[in-house]
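tool=predict chain=A
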Amino acid sequence: MAIKLEQLNSQIVRCRKCSRLVRWREACAKKPPRRYIGQNYWAKPLAGFGDPNARLLIIGLAPAAHGGNRTGRMFTGDRSGDWLYGALHAAGFANQPNSDHRDDGLKLSDCYITAAVHCAPPLNKPSLIEYKRCRPYLVQELEMMRSQLLVVIVLGKIAFDSFLKAYEESGGTPPKPRPKFGHCVSARLPSGPLFICS
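tool=predict ok
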Protein backbone atom coordinates (compact mmCIF):
# COMPACT_ATOMS: atom_id res chain seq x y z
CA MET A 1 0.00 0.00 0.00
CA ALA A 2 2.65 2.53 1.04
CA ILE A 3 4.66 1.84 -2.13
CA LYS A 4 1.59 2.27 -4.37
CA LEU A 5 0.69 5.58 -2.68
CA GLU A 6 4.30 6.71 -3.00
CA GLN A 7 4.22 5.94 -6.74
CA LEU A 8 0.93 7.79 -7.15
CA ASN A 9 2.28 10.78 -5.22
CA SER A 10 5.36 10.90 -7.49
CA GLN A 11 3.02 10.97 -10.47
CA ILE A 12 0.93 13.77 -8.92
CA VAL A 13 3.99 15.96 -8.25
CA ARG A 14 5.06 15.68 -11.91
CA CYS A 15 1.60 16.51 -13.30
CA ARG A 16 1.29 19.36 -15.82
CA LYS A 17 -2.16 18.53 -17.26
CA CYS A 18 -3.73 21.95 -16.53
CA SER A 19 -1.77 24.77 -18.16
CA ARG A 20 -3.71 27.50 -16.31
CA LEU A 21 -2.86 25.95 -12.94
CA VAL A 22 0.79 25.42 -13.92
CA ARG A 23 1.07 29.10 -14.91
CA TRP A 24 -0.63 30.28 -11.71
CA ARG A 25 1.33 28.16 -9.23
CA GLU A 26 4.63 29.17 -10.87
CA ALA A 27 3.65 32.86 -11.11
CA CYS A 28 2.86 32.89 -7.38
CA ALA A 29 6.39 31.64 -6.70
CA LYS A 30 7.95 34.31 -8.92
CA LYS A 31 6.02 37.22 -7.38
CA PRO A 32 5.24 36.34 -3.77
CA PRO A 33 3.78 38.75 -1.24
CA ARG A 34 6.37 40.78 0.65
CA ARG A 35 6.18 38.53 3.73
CA TYR A 36 7.40 35.54 1.65
CA ILE A 37 10.05 37.22 -0.53
CA GLY A 38 13.21 35.17 -0.51
CA GLN A 39 11.48 31.89 0.35
CA ASN A 40 11.78 28.97 -2.03
CA TYR A 41 8.32 28.00 -3.27
CA TRP A 42 7.39 24.39 -3.94
CA ALA A 43 5.28 25.56 -6.94
CA LYS A 44 4.31 22.02 -8.02
CA PRO A 45 1.23 19.88 -7.40
CA LEU A 46 0.92 18.69 -3.80
CA ALA A 47 0.79 14.98 -3.09
CA GLY A 48 -1.37 13.52 -0.37
CA PHE A 49 0.19 13.46 3.08
CA GLY A 50 0.00 11.16 6.07
CA ASP A 51 -0.29 7.54 7.12
CA PRO A 52 -0.85 5.19 4.13
CA ASN A 53 -2.68 2.78 6.48
CA ALA A 54 -5.02 5.50 7.76
CA ARG A 55 -8.62 4.86 8.74
CA LEU A 56 -9.36 8.61 8.60
CA LEU A 57 -9.22 10.44 5.26
CA ILE A 58 -9.51 14.24 5.07
CA ILE A 59 -10.23 15.87 1.70
CA GLY A 60 -9.83 19.60 1.08
CA LEU A 61 -10.42 21.77 -1.97
CA ALA A 62 -6.90 22.63 -3.20
CA PRO A 63 -3.60 24.03 -1.91
CA ALA A 64 -3.43 27.73 -1.08
CA ALA A 65 -1.28 29.85 -3.41
CA HIS A 66 0.98 31.03 -0.58
CA GLY A 67 0.32 28.13 1.82
CA GLY A 68 0.76 24.63 0.42
CA ASN A 69 2.01 25.94 -2.93
CA ARG A 70 4.81 27.63 -0.99
CA THR A 71 5.57 24.97 1.62
CA GLY A 72 5.00 21.77 -0.36
CA ARG A 73 2.51 20.15 2.03
CA MET A 74 -1.28 20.15 2.21
CA PHE A 75 -2.71 22.68 4.68
CA THR A 76 0.73 23.96 5.62
CA GLY A 77 1.79 27.57 5.94
CA ASP A 78 -1.65 29.16 6.20
CA ARG A 79 -4.34 29.71 8.83
CA SER A 80 -6.49 26.76 7.75
CA GLY A 81 -3.54 24.48 8.44
CA ASP A 82 -2.99 26.06 11.86
CA TRP A 83 -6.53 25.06 12.81
CA LEU A 84 -6.48 21.62 11.15
CA TYR A 85 -3.17 20.38 12.52
CA GLY A 86 -3.93 21.79 15.96
CA ALA A 87 -7.18 19.79 15.97
CA LEU A 88 -5.45 16.64 14.66
CA HIS A 89 -2.80 16.93 17.37
CA ALA A 90 -5.44 17.39 20.08
CA ALA A 91 -7.24 14.25 18.79
CA GLY A 92 -4.03 12.19 18.72
CA PHE A 93 -3.60 12.01 14.92
CA ALA A 94 -0.55 14.31 14.71
CA ASN A 95 2.68 14.29 16.67
CA GLN A 96 2.76 18.11 16.89
CA PRO A 97 0.16 20.90 16.70
CA ASN A 98 1.83 22.96 13.98
CA SER A 99 2.76 22.47 10.35
CA ASP A 100 5.23 25.05 9.07
CA HIS A 101 7.00 23.37 6.14
CA ARG A 102 7.37 19.89 4.66
CA ASP A 103 10.55 19.09 6.66
CA ASP A 104 9.34 20.21 10.11
CA GLY A 105 9.04 16.68 11.57
CA LEU A 106 5.22 16.51 11.46
CA LYS A 107 3.91 12.95 11.25
CA LEU A 108 0.31 11.80 11.03
CA SER A 109 -0.91 8.57 12.56
CA ASP A 110 -4.05 6.85 11.23
CA CYS A 111 -4.88 9.94 9.14
CA TYR A 112 -4.26 10.85 5.48
CA ILE A 113 -4.91 14.25 3.87
CA THR A 114 -5.54 14.90 0.20
CA ALA A 115 -7.44 17.34 -2.03
CA ALA A 116 -9.95 17.50 -4.85
CA VAL A 117 -7.38 19.46 -6.89
CA HIS A 118 -3.63 19.17 -6.24
CA CYS A 119 -2.51 22.58 -7.60
CA ALA A 120 -3.24 26.04 -6.24
CA PRO A 121 -5.95 27.62 -8.45
CA PRO A 122 -6.42 31.35 -9.15
CA LEU A 123 -8.90 32.87 -6.67
CA ASN A 124 -9.12 29.41 -5.07
CA LYS A 125 -11.51 28.38 -7.88
CA PRO A 126 -10.52 25.47 -10.12
CA SER A 127 -12.51 25.10 -13.33
CA LEU A 128 -14.74 22.09 -14.01
CA ILE A 129 -12.22 20.64 -16.46
CA GLU A 130 -9.46 21.01 -13.86
CA TYR A 131 -11.56 19.04 -11.36
CA LYS A 132 -12.12 16.35 -13.95
CA ARG A 133 -8.43 16.12 -14.85
CA CYS A 134 -7.43 15.80 -11.20
CA ARG A 135 -10.20 13.41 -10.10
CA PRO A 136 -8.38 10.22 -11.23
CA TYR A 137 -5.82 10.86 -8.48
CA LEU A 138 -8.54 10.91 -5.81
CA VAL A 139 -10.15 7.85 -7.40
CA GLN A 140 -6.84 5.96 -7.14
CA GLU A 141 -6.34 7.04 -3.53
CA LEU A 142 -9.82 5.77 -2.67
CA GLU A 143 -9.23 2.48 -4.49
CA MET A 144 -6.03 1.94 -2.52
CA MET A 145 -7.51 2.90 0.84
CA ARG A 146 -11.11 1.70 0.55
CA SER A 147 -10.80 -1.44 2.67
CA GLN A 148 -9.24 0.39 5.62
CA LEU A 149 -11.20 3.68 5.74
CA LEU A 150 -13.68 4.16 8.58
CA VAL A 151 -14.25 7.92 8.33
CA VAL A 152 -13.94 10.46 5.49
CA ILE A 153 -14.13 14.16 6.35
CA VAL A 154 -14.67 16.57 3.48
CA LEU A 155 -13.85 20.23 4.02
CA GLY A 156 -16.36 22.24 2.02
CA LYS A 157 -18.89 21.78 -0.78
CA ILE A 158 -16.35 21.30 -3.57
CA ALA A 159 -14.53 18.57 -1.67
CA PHE A 160 -17.96 17.05 -0.92
CA ASP A 161 -18.94 16.88 -4.61
CA SER A 162 -15.49 15.68 -5.68
CA PHE A 163 -15.44 12.94 -3.08
CA LEU A 164 -18.88 11.57 -4.03
CA LYS A 165 -17.94 11.48 -7.74
CA ALA A 166 -14.56 9.86 -7.03
CA TYR A 167 -16.15 7.39 -4.61
CA GLU A 168 -18.60 6.28 -7.29
CA GLU A 169 -15.85 6.10 -9.96
CA SER A 170 -13.73 3.98 -7.63
CA GLY A 171 -16.51 1.39 -7.43
CA GLY A 172 -18.34 2.65 -4.35
CA THR A 173 -22.10 2.90 -4.16
CA PRO A 174 -23.23 6.41 -3.22
CA PRO A 175 -26.02 6.65 -0.65
CA LYS A 176 -29.60 7.15 -1.86
CA PRO A 177 -30.95 9.68 -1.62
CA ARG A 178 -27.71 11.50 -2.32
CA PRO A 179 -26.74 13.45 0.81
CA LYS A 180 -26.93 17.23 0.63
CA PHE A 181 -23.94 19.24 1.66
CA GLY A 182 -24.14 20.98 5.00
CA HIS A 183 -21.77 21.69 7.84
CA CYS A 184 -21.75 18.95 10.49
CA VAL A 185 -23.76 16.63 8.22
CA SER A 186 -22.89 12.94 8.23
CA ALA A 187 -23.98 9.89 6.30
CA ARG A 188 -23.00 6.23 6.33
CA LEU A 189 -21.90 5.12 2.87
CA PRO A 190 -23.27 1.71 1.84
CA SER A 191 -20.57 -0.82 2.73
CA GLY A 192 -18.22 2.07 3.31
CA PRO A 193 -16.96 4.68 5.72
CA LEU A 194 -18.85 7.29 7.68
CA PHE A 195 -18.88 10.44 5.57
CA ILE A 196 -18.77 13.80 7.38
CA CYS A 197 -19.00 17.33 6.00
CA SER A 198 -17.23 20.11 7.81
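The helical segments are 2-14, 19-30, 68-71, 79-90, 128-145, 157-169. The CA atoms of residues 102 and 112 lie 15 Å apart.
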